[in-house]
Design goal:
Layout (H helix, E strand, L loop, with lengths): L2 E8 L1 H10 L1 H14 L3 E7 L6 E6 L3 H14 L2 E8 L2 H8 L11
Antiparallel strand pairs: 1-3, 1-4, 2-3
Length: about 110
């Protein structure tokens, strides 16, 4: 199953909700949502710095990842970034694919 990295930054209202409901509750909500979509949460962490929350999930496909990202963003409580993650084996396989490319201006 493809892996995705979601990073999020809470809005003021989102941060207030997190303080009120707690971190373990937020993790449980995300695990339930992902599970109902046929996926699994591999890691869930809160963080200092650029992002407030970091989540790595296994999901069935890009459409499911996009549905999560759009729904979370539309809530207005969290700004979200989504990154598709590749395994080392996937990178090895991609290096063996023949690609015809002409750089701009060449």
């Amino acid at each position: 199953m493809p892996k995705y990295l979601f990073t999020g930054t809470y809005s003021v209202d989102g941060a207030k909700g997190l303080v009120k409901e707690g971190g373990t509750n937020r993790r449980a909500v995300i695990e339930k949502m992902v599970g109902e979509l046929g996926g699994k949460v591999e890691a869930f962490y809160f963080a200092f710095g650029e992002h407030d929350v970091v989540v790595i999930v296994d999901l069935p496909d890009n459409e499911t990842a996009a549905a999560i990202a759009l729904t979370v963003a539309a809530s207005g409580s969290v700004g979200i970034d989504t990154t598709v993650l590749l395994t080392p084996e996937e990178v090895d396989a991609s290096g063996k694919k023949s690609v015809s490319y002409k750089p701009p201006g060449s």
